[in-house]
Amino acid sequence: MKKDIIIPVVKDVHVAIIHEFNKEFLDKEWNVYVINNTAETIEMVLVVSKGYDGEKLTSTMRHSITKLDGKSYAKVEMVQEDVLQLNNEFFVTFFADNKLFEKRFIFEKNTVTKANLTTIPLIEKDGILAK
Q: Is the pTM above the cut of 0.85?
């Protein structure tokens, strides 16, 4: 029975955290983006996020994106500096090709730093891709 269950593998959909300037607050902040680097549109994207480290736990946040075209991205949420000291998990679920896909992305604690920044493909800004 187990051999009959096909679990689709997520490819070319990523979560990145970008260090970018906020014109309203005149300061840089960390923003999380979902990147669809496929040629196909993904739909009904649900992102569930939380931070954790032992006894420390943040609130669970839920975000939805109705449609994310191929080769595009969408901002999900802003992350405060003190939350980056925790493990940050983003569980992404979406539909593509009439199949349900899901993947857990993690930014391990203390890895989101200015020293670890690289240019994120498609967005072309400095940030870090989740594992």
A: yes
